[in-house]
Amino acid sequence: MDNKPTYSLQQLVLYFLKLGTTGFGGPVALVGYMHRDLVENRKWISEEEYKQGLALAQLAPGPLAAQLGIYLGFVHHRILGATLAGIAFVLPSFVMVVLLGIAYKLYGGLAWMQAVFYGVGAAVIGIIAMSSYKLTVKSVGKINVQSLKDNWLLWLFFVIAMTTTFITKQEQVLLFIGAGLLYMFVKAPPKWANKNMANSLIMLQIGLEHYEVSTLQKIAIFFTKAGAFVFGSGLAIIPFLHTGVVTENHWLTEQQFLDAVAVAMITPGPVVITVGFIGYLVVGFPGACVASLSTFLPCYLFTVLPAPYFNKIAKNTSIKAFVDGITASVVGALVGAVVVIATQSIVDIPTSIIAILSILALIYIKKIQEPYIILASATLGIMLKLI
C-alpha cells in the first residue's frame, strides 16, 4: 500500500457520503461505481489496491460494498480512514430507512400504504429470486451436468442447506460452519487442523441461543450473528433475518418483513441497511441504531484486522476452501428462504404476475435498477387495490 495519498481524508469522506446518498443498484453496482470513480477517474486508488480490497470483501463475511469501502478508506488513511469511510457510506441510507420507518409506523394501516406494499412485496420476491439465481451461478457453478460433476460437494451443501431451510424455516449456522470445515479438510486441509475450533464455535452458538436477555440485547446478539455469517451480496442476509425476525422472535409479521426488504431496495447504499428499518419497527430509534451497529461492526472488524496482512491471507488455500464451502450453504439457504417467503407472500394471481414480470424485467431489460421495478410495482398495487 502506498502511504502517500493524492487526496485528503475529507475528500474521501465526502465521496463516500455522496455514494451512500446516490448509489443505487445493489452491491455489484456499488463496487463498480467505486472502481470507476476512485481508480479510473480520480486515480486515488491503484488497480492493485482495488483488487486486493475486492478480494478481501469477497473472502470475509459481511456486505460486499460496505467492506470494500472500508478497505479503500484503510489503504491510505488506515483505521481513521476505514472508520469514517464506513460511517459516511452507511449513514445516508440509515437516515432514510429510519425516516421511512417513522412514515411506515404512522401510515402503515392506511389503504394506500397497504396497496403500495401489496405490489412491492410481490416484486421483491421476483428480485430476490433472480438474485438467488445469479448468486448460485457465481458461487456454486452453472446449472449443468459438468458443473454438477466438478463441484458435486458444493452442490450437495447447496441442496442440503436449501432443503433444511425450507423444511425448518430456520437458518442453520452450524450447518454453514460444518460445510466450510468439511470442504476445507477435503480440498485444502490446513497444517494446524485444530479439532477444538469446531467445538468452540458450537459452544458459542449454543450460548447465544439460550441466554435470556432484553429485547435490545437480543437484537444486538442476533444482528451480530447475522453480520458475521453473510458472504458476498447483501441479499444473502435474508434467510438469517427471516428466521430470527419472523419465525423465532416474532418481531415482525411476514408482510412487514417483506416491506422492510423493499425499503432497503428503494434506498441507496448497502442493501443490508434493511436492518435499520427492522430495528426501528421493533424498538424505535434505539433498535435501529443497535441493529445497524451490530450488523456492520463484524464486517468492519473482518476488514480492518486482516487488511495489513491480507496478501498472505489471500494465498491461503485452506481459508479459500472454507469460504467456498460456507458460501455454497449460505446461497442454498437463500434459495430455500425465497421459496418459504414466496409461498406466504404470493397470495393471488396479480401478485404472481407482478413477481414474474419483475424477473422478466431483470432478465430482458438491460441495466434496469431495482428501484424502478419497485416503483412500477407500487403503482400497480395502487391501481389493483384502490382504482
Strand arrangement, major sheet: 1-2
C-alpha-based Rg, rounded: 20 Å
Outline the biggest β-sheet. Answer: 2 strands, parallel
Helix-strand pattern? HHHEHHHHHHHEHHHHHHH
**Number of discrete helical segments:** 17
On the 0 to 100 scale, the average pLDDT is 84
Would you write up a description of this structure?
It is a single chain. The protein is mostly helical and 387 residues long. The protein has one domain (111-386). Helix content is 79%, strand content 1%. It is built from 17 helices and two strands. It has helices at residues 9-22, 26-41, 47-59, 64-107, 111-139, 145-150, 152-168, 173-187, 196-210, 215-228, 238-248, 254-266, 274-304, 310-314, 317-345, 349-364, 370-386, and strands at residues 62-63, 231-232. Strands 1-2 form a two-stranded parallel ribbon. The protein is globular, with a radius of gyration of 20 Å. The model is unreliable at 200-212 (pLDDT under 50).
